[in-house]
Amino acid sequence: MLNSQLSHIFDDNIFIFLEQNDYYKIKNTHIYDEILKHIEHFLLILKQVVEDEKCKEIKILDVLQYFKVKPKQAKIYKEILDKELIFIKKERPDIVDSWKYYKEFEKMCENL
Fold this sequence. Notes:
Blueprint: H1 2-10, H2 20-27, H3 31-56, H4 60-69, H5 71-84, H6 86-91, H7 93-97, H8 100-110
Helix pairs in contact: 1-3, 4-5, 4-8
Protein name: DUF2972 domain-containing protein
Organism: Campylobacter upsaliensis
């Protein structure tokens, strides 16, 4: 009930739970709208924080670009990955073959 009134903010990704008794206690009082305003304000701030944090995420293409301009670092990581992935490359090459960006990384390292 409360969720449906606030779903325009987070598209059903966040739920507010409270006991049914408590809901009915506040539903029929003058503070209900005030509570909704506070929750909505909080969710709007939370949504902005989530969006800000998403902007800070490092994208895989950023990592690949970093390695293109820092070939020494790429070589170091290539050596580490070669060592750490020996077993999975041997036993499950299908898994490694499904790693699109890892294949790009390996191809890039061939040209170093």
